[in-house]
Design brief:
Structural class: alpha/beta
CATH architecture of one domain: 3-Layer(aba) Sandwich
Oligomer: single chain
Largest sheet: 7 strands, parallel
Shape: globular
Number of helices: 12
CATH class of one domain: Alpha Beta
Bound molecules: nicotinamide-adenine-dinucleotide, 2'deoxy-thymidine-5'-diphospho-alpha-D-glucose
Strand order of the largest sheet: 3-2-1-4-5-6-10
Helix content: 40-55%
CATH superfamily of one domain: NAD(P)-binding Rossmann-like Domain
Distance between the termini: 55 Å
CATH topology of one domain: Rossmann fold
Number of strands: 12
Length: 349
C-alpha cells in the first residue's frame, strides 16, 4: 500500500516547496496537502503539480479538531509534516490571539489526531514539526544558536512557535509519539508573500514605492533559499533521529540594510536601470517593537549527522528569486490586491 503523508500549510510559501519536493521525488507516496487557504495560502503556488495522481488537496483548518480527526480517519497518514501556521511577526504584534489558536491549539489538535489514529503502534510513523530559529530569542554581536540554546522567545509569534515545539516534545516524552523538529532561519525565494522583507521590497521597487527599513537597519538575519529548506525537511523527515531537533541554516548572515542595498543593486542590473535607482527608495521607519537584534544558526548538526548542505549560494538564490518575481508579476498583483493594501496601509502609515 502507498505510504500517505499529510503536509499541513502546503499552499503557503515554504509548504508549497515542500509539497513539490515530496510529490515529485516520491511517486510511491500519496501526498495530502491540508491548508485553510488563509491570506497566505495560494493554490496558484502549486499549479504545476496539482494534477499529479499522488497529490490531493484538502481545504481544512487545523483549529477544527473534529475535522482534523475525521481527516486522519479518512486518510490514515503514516507521516505528518506540519507547516501550517500564522507566520508573520508584525501581524502577531497586532493580533496575538490568532497565533495562539493556529500555532498552539492547531498543533495540539494534530498531535491528538496522530496519537489517536496511530494508537500507540508507532512503527513506520513520524510527526515532523517545522519550526523557527526565533524560539531561541536574540543574539548579540557574536555566537550562534545551537540545538541546545535555551528557548527565549520575544514576539507573540515566536512565543506561539516555542509553545508548539514544547507540545511536540511533550507528546514524545509522555506518549512516545515519534517526532522530529526542524528550526530554520529566514527563508527567501519564489512564492514568498510580500509582507516579508525581501518580497515586500521587490514589490515596492517595481511599484516605485519606498522601501521601509525598521530602526537603523542593523538588525541581522540568516537567510536560506526556500528550496534548500524543503530539501532539509525531506532529509530530516526520512533520516532524522526520533525525538531530535535539527537547526537548519546556511551560515549566511546579513544586516537588513546591506541586504536591501544588494537587492536594489541586483534589481537595477536586471532591469537595466542606472546604478542607485532603487536604493533611493530606502526609507528608515519606526522600529518593530521588541525587535530581535540578530539571528544566526549553527547548522553543524544536520551537516555532520545527515550530510546536509545548501545547494545554492546566496548570490545565486537571490538572483533566482528576483528573476522569479520579475517573471511572475501577475502572481504579485494577485496576492497584493484585496486585503493586502489594507494591511499595508495599517502597518506602514
Ligand atoms: P506562510 O504564512 O507563507 O504559510 C502558512 C500556510 O499555512 C498558508 O498556506 C496558510 O493558508 C496555512 N494556514 C494558516 N493557518 C492555518 C490553519 N488554521 N489551518 C490550516 N492551514 C493554515 O508561512 P511560511 O513562511 O511558509 O512558514 C511555514 C512554516 O515554516 C511555519 O510553521 C513557520 O513558522 C515556519 N518557518 C518559516 C520560516 C520563514 O522564513 N518563512 C522560517 C522558519 C520556519
Ligand atoms: O527566522 C525565521 C523567521 O523569519 C520565521 O520564523 C518567520 O515566519 C519569518 O516571517 C521570518 O521572520 P522575520 O521577522 O525575521 O522576517 P521579516 O521578513 O518580517 O523581517 C526580516 C527583517 O527585516 C527583520 O529584522 C525585520 C525587518 N523588516 C521587515 C519588514 C517586513 C524591515 O526592516 N522592514 C519591513 O518592512
Amino acid at each position: 500500500m502507498k505510504k500517505s503523508i499529510l503536509i499541513t500549510g502546503g499552499a503557503g510559501f515554504i509548504g508549497s516547496h515542500v509539497v513539490r519536493e515530496f510529490v515529485t521525488k516520491y511517486p510511491a507516496y500519496q501526498i495530502i496537502n491540508l491548508d485553510a487557504l488563509t491570506y497566505a495560502g495560494n493554490l496558484e503556488n502549486l499549479k504545476d503539480i496539482e494534477n499529479r495522481s499522488n497529490y490531493t488537496f484538502v481545504k481544512g483548518d487545523i483549529t477544527d479538531a473534529a475535522h482534523i480527526f475525521a481527516l486522519f480517519n479518512e486518510y490514515k497518514p503514516d507521516g505528518v509534516i506540519h507547516l501550517a501556521a500564522e507566520s508573520h511577526v508584525d501581524r502577531s504584534i497586532t493580533d496575538p490571539s490568532a497565533f495562539v489558536t493556529t500555532n498552539v491549539i492547531g498543533t495540539v489538535n494534530l498531535l491528538n489526531a496522530a496519537k489517536e489514529i496511530w494508537k500507540d503502534n508507532y512503527q513506520g510513523k513520524r510527526f515532523h514539526h517545522v519550526s523557527t530559529d526565533e524560539v531561541y530569542g536574540a543574539l548579540g554581536d557574536t555566537g550562534l544558536f545551537t540545538e541546545d540554546t535555551k528557548y527565549d522567545p520575544h514576539s507573540p509569534y515566536s512565543a506561539s512557535k516555542a509553545s508548539s515545539d514544547h507540545f511536540v516534545r511533550a507528546y514524545h516524552d509522555t506518549y512516545g509519539l515519534p517526532i522530529v523538529l526542524t528550526n530554520c532561519s529566514n527563508n527567501y525565494g519564489p512564492n514568498h508573500f510580500p509582507e516579508k522583507l525581501i518580497p515586500l521590497c521587490i514589490h515596492n521597487i517595481l511599484n516605485n514605492k519606498s522601501l521601509p527599513i525598521y530602526g537603523d537597519g542593523k538588525y541581522t538575519r540568516d537567510w536560506l533559499f526556500v528550496i534548500d529548506h524543503a530539501k532539509a525537511i525531506n532529509l530530516v523527515f526520512h533520516k532524522g533521529k526520533n525525538g531530535d531537533s535539527y537547526n537548519v541554516g546556511g551560515f549566511n548572515e546579513w544586516q537588513n540594510i546591506d541586504l536591501v542595498k544588494e537587492l536594489c543593486k541586483q534589481v537595477d542590473e536586471k532591469l537595466g536601470r542606472p546604478k542607485g535607482t532603487s536604493a533611493k527608495l530606502i526609507t528608515f521607519v519606526k522600529d518593530r517593537p521588541g525587535h530581535d537584534l540578530r539571528y544566526a544558526i549553527d547548522a553543524s548538526k544536520i551537516n555532520k549527522e545527515l550530510g546536509y548542505k545548501p545547494s545554492v549560494t546566496f548570490e545565486e538564490g537571490l538572483s533566482k528569486t528576483i528573476d522569479w518575481f520579475l517573471s511572475n508579476q501577475a502572481w504579485l498583483d494577485n496576492v497584493t490586491s484585496g486585503d493586502y493594501q489594507k494591511y499595508y496601509d495599517k502597518q506602514y502609515s
